[in-house]
Specification:
Helices cover 88% and strands 0% of the residues. It contains two helices and no strands. It has helices at residues 4-30, 37-80. It has one domain (4-80). With 81 residues, it is an all-alpha fold.
C-alpha cells in the first residue's frame, strides 16, 4: 500500500519527468533533426520510454525504502515495550 508521502513523491517525480520530456522534445524540434519527421518521432518515443523506466525504478526504490522504515519502526516499538 502506498502512503500519501510516497504518492506525493512519485507525483513530483512524474511532473519533473514530464517537464524534461517536453524540453527535450522542444530542443529536437528546434534543430535540423526536427525537420526529419521519422528521426524526431523515434527520438520522442525513446525519450518517453526512458522516462517511463525511470519512473518505475524510482517508484520501486520508494517502496523498498518505505518497507525498510516500517520494519525499523516495528522493531523499535518492540524494544520500547
Amino acid at each position: 500500500m502506498i502512503n500519501s508521502t510516497e504518492r506525493s513523491d512519485i507525483l513530483v517525480f512524474n511532473c519533473y519527468l514530464c517537464h524534461v520530456r517536453y524540453l527535450l522534445t522542444c530542443y529536437v524540434y528546434s534543430t535540423k533533426i526536427g525537420e526529419i519527421s521519422d528521426i524526431s518521432k523515434c527520438f520522442e518515443n525513446f525519450v518517453s520510454q526512458a522516462l517511463g523506466v525511470l519512473t518505475r525504478i524510482y517508484a520501486a526504490e520508494l517502496r523498498k525504502n518505505t518497507k525498510k522504515i516500517q520494519i525499523l519502526k516495528k522493531k523499535n516499538r518492540f524494544f520500547l515495550l
